[in-house]
């Protein structure tokens, strides 16, 4: 919700709150931040990080595929027994709580 709200503000300021622009800004934010840092603004607020199952940072490839699936919405709202969304299962990532 935090990430979407921030992207909505940017969309409203520069694109007249166009829905497609908001989705595009959200996708860019997710791909860039999760791909480089392992977390988005919303993740950072709640001390969460996207990692590979081996504990390594997600990286750009998984971040791009993960973001595309999140933008489809359905994979993000269907969870498995470990509470991992289909978007995380598809790319072998998990959302973990960090200590920082």
UniProtKB/TrEMBL annotation:
Q: Which UniProt keywords apply?
A: Membrane, Transmembrane, Transmembrane helix
Q: What residue stretches are annotated with the RDD domain?
A: 16-91
Family matches, as InterPro entries: RDD
Entry's transmembrane regions: 20-39
Compartment(s) of residence: Membrane
Against Pfam families, the record matches this protein to: RDD
Q: What kind of membrane protein is this, topologically?
A: Multi-pass membrane protein
The UniProt entry's GO CC annotations, sorted and at most eight, read: membrane
- Origin organism lineage: Bacteria, Bacillati, Actinomycetota, Actinomycetes, Micrococcales
Q: Does the keyword Membrane apply?
A: yes
Its protein name is RDD family protein
Q: Per the record's keyword annotation, is Transmembrane included, yes or no? A: yes
